[in-house]
Amino acid sequence: MDRDTCWERLRAARHGVLGTAHATRGVDAVPVVFVFDDDRDAIVIPIDTVKPKAGGRLQRLRNLDGDDRAVLLVEHYDDDWSQLWWVRVHGRAAEADPTPGQLQHLAAAFPAYAAPESVASVIVLAPTHVTGWAAGP
Amino acid sequence: MDRDTCWERLRAARHGVLGTAHATRGVDAVPVVFVFDDDRDAIVIPIDTVKPKAGGRLQRLRNLDGDDRAVLLVEHYDDDWSQLWWVRVHGRAAEADPTPGQLQHLAAAFPAYAAPESVASVIVLAPTHVTGWAAGP
Question: Which CATH number fits the domain that encloses residue A47?
Answer without folding.
Answer: 2.30.110.10
